[in-house]
Amino acid sequence: MRIFLSGPMGAGKTVVGRAVAERSGLGLVDLDERIEAAAGAETSEIFRAQGEMAFRRLERDEALRAAEQDGVVVALGGGTVCDDDVRRLLLSRGTLVTLSAPIDQLVLRVRADEGRGRPLLAGGARDALERLLGARRAAYAECHASIETSGRDPQDVAREVLEVAARLVVAVPLGERTYVVEIGSGVRGRVVDCATRATPGGEVIVATDGGAARWAREVEALLTTAGRRVVSVQLERGEASKTLAAAERVWDAALAAGVDRDALVVAVGGGVVGDVAGFAASALMRGVAHGQVPTTLLAMVDSSVGGKTGVDRPQGKNLVGTFHQPRFVLADVDTLDTLDPAERRAGLAEVAKAAWLEGEADVAALERDVAALVAGEPSATTDAVARAVRTKARIVSGDEREGGLRRVLNLGHTVGHALEAAAGFGALRHGEAVALGLVASLRVGHALGRARADDVARMERLLGALGLPTGLTGRLDASALGWLGSDKKRRAGELLFVVPGGPGVVEVVPLAAAKIAEILGVPA
Ligand SMILES: NC(=O)c1ccc[n+]([C@@H]2O[C@H](COP(=O)([O-])OP(=O)(O)OC[C@H]3O[C@@H](n4cnc5c(N)ncnc54)[C@H](O)[C@@H]3O)[C@@H](O)[C@H]2O)c1
């Protein structure tokens, strides 16, 4: 276990770090002490003699070293997480907790601790702290949890830190819009705490559909018992109900209940419910908070993370929508118990896609766990969801609004969408179409000299073992080719095609639909 404690000076990093170490047996690392030991000088002396830049370089080196140590709680410096690389590394290597306190409290604490050299406070503690907090707000927000320490016993804060560290949480770092995805068996029980953090009061509109209703009722009961007023909305099942009319039902139910801007919309269901509810939340009262409790594998690994919301139009899928990040995502693998096994398999296609995007370790883990995943074994499922969510979080945080990097998430989807549309929506599950699309893209990668024949065969074997279709013959024909040309992610007549090499290697390449057809041997 590795825990990193961040936050402004005076937030309690050292004292809470000590309490965490005592309670857990983890070793305590005080980053400032490490820096001073490495430099052979006190912080104030390093600042005076070498300047802040030199201090930051030392701080970065020591933070990177601490990130590799096992069994430690690290009290970071106040500015350590301002280095983007360091912050992202700490988020991926352990549990990063930001401790906070109101400014008055911070000022009191740093004044009480004047013996300690704090070069950044020269010229007045309050002004300096306000400036630092303003400049560091987004960096501090990128964490697994923020914990308020004011008026609390450090032991109590330490207990809370250890609770956070014991959960499987993946952060989606997006500055002040950062949120975490909690994954595992029973995490739906965390909905009250997450709802309270998102909006302490106000109505909670719980949207679901017939397939996930049983889980929605549980979530509602937890919220009601905790004193929250719940408004239930049950949508029709299936892609056909991903409409503006469905979003209107959410709006009307909320408005009839007299909600205000403190309302929270919680989606309990698959990607359809999640997309509609997220869209409805983004426009209700010009935008209220929303949370996702995905109950299909696809929704856990894909649609609930990343903030894309939307509805379909007669002209095509997802043509009207917004980017509206959720405040929390609770991916409870228990909810998959009631899911049709064919829906579960379809979700595994997105898991395979994410693994290929990530690299060899994730592909190998998926190959190792194939049987357990097909059997729906909870711990293998939890591990697979966590890996896929980490990949999606990494990509989304690098490109929230799909300006570039995020396009790689379309791996397998260009041909997949074409096959789905050609078959008539509903005839082929999205995940099944993506599986076929992944095979097609590996073949394109091979033809373009990027993927080896072994890579193509490996992907086919993996998808086949997961129970997904891999045979393009008889499916990819001239009619599907027509749909390929109508993909909305097109530029100057060419499709932006995600071309894979081996695991972890992808490139977005403009390709004419005719070229793709030629490579895949589709007759004109
Ligand atoms: N927003 C995004 O980034 C994003 C990404 C990928 C896909 N999507 C969207 O997601 C949608 C597909 O999502 P999906 O595959 O989850 O389909 P879905 O929401 O239609 O769910 C599939 C079926 O499973 C049922 N169901 C859901 N949870 C259940 C449970 N626990 N037990 C029993 N039945 C359950 C549903 O009622 C439905 O009939 C598409 O509309 C797609 O466009 C969005």
Can you give a write-up of this model?
With 524 residues, this protein is α/β, with parallel strands linked by helices. The protein has 22 helices and 17 strands. It has a seven-stranded mixed beta sheet with strand order 6-7-14-11-10-8-9, sandwiched between helices. Strands 2-3-1-4-5 form a five-stranded parallel beta sheet, sandwiched between helices. Helix 13 runs parallel beside helix 17. The N and C termini lie far apart (57 Å). Nicotinamide-adenine-dinucleotide binds next to helix 12, helix 13 and strand 13.
- Count of DSSP helices? 22
Structural class: alpha/beta
The poorly predicted ranges are none
Q: How would you name the oligomeric state of the polypeptide chains in this document? A: single chain
The ligands found in this model are: nicotinamide-adenine-dinucleotide
Quick one: overall form? Answer: globular
Strand-residue fraction? 15-25%
Mean pLDDT: 93
First-last Cα distance: 57 Å
Main sheet makeup: 7 strands, mixed
